[in-house]
Amino acid sequence: xxxxxxxxxxxxxxxxxxxxxxxxxxxxxxxxMRFEVVCTPNTKSTEFPGEYGVWAYDSKSRxxxxxxxxxxxxxxxxxxxxxxxxxxxxxxxxxxxxxxxRAVFDEQSGVGFEHYSLSELQDLLYTExxxxxxxxxxxxxxSLDFRSALSLVRFKAVSRCAATTQVTVKGxxxxxxxxxxxxxxxxxxxxxxxxxxxxxxxxxxSQIIPSDGCxxxxxxxxxxxxxxxxxxxxxxxxDGIFVRDQVLSTTILLDxxxxxxxxxxxxxxxxxxxxxxxx
Length: 279
Known about the structure:
Oligomer: single chain
CATH topology of the largest domain: Immunoglobulin-like
Radius of gyration: 30 Å
Structural class: mainly beta
Shape: elongated
Distance between the termini: 102 Å
Low-confidence stretches: 1-19
């Protein structure tokens, strides 16, 4: 009887001692990876650029966690097409681009767009590297601040003619720019131009210039330093007399940078002169 009672006490004591000597360690949390898509004000696209894609690498081992995975919309956020559980202890380097079908990636040159032509009529978006990101800091949500790899030039037409003169713009041609090239985002955003300068018809139509001017067109261009010759085709009505198909021209040197917006006033004068007025 005493033997069994003593054994029970020793057993209970051993269990208590074991519990007191152990340290309880909760499991690290795991989060579903999600993304918030943001566009910088000067490069906001006028249309959806196509699929967003992401690349993610372990910040320490450099092992690929996601390689060119498309994002799908989930309410107000975006998620990898292939579900990704993000461990709190894992740091990731994240890169993104759109449209995914047009993008390439490697760790040395970052996001790339190869042999792009302005005739494709689409914007090219990329993010700067997001390094050493941990899910625990944002509950798994990453903000993708997209920038355009292209430049955007906004042309506004302004009549400096007498009040009795009506000016109708029929066309705007840009000369002196290369329209093909390849882009890489690292170590800094850079374009390599391909081919020769070719004329670019940026506007064609019939736009009467009102007294306060008007937005004529917006034109994406491949970033480059260019001496551009602008040709504005116009019809004039002066005191009831029609003067048709006058081609006004002027030049401007622009150092176009990725993701930048340039606004130009095209001033039309009575003597068929064209002057560029930077806004």
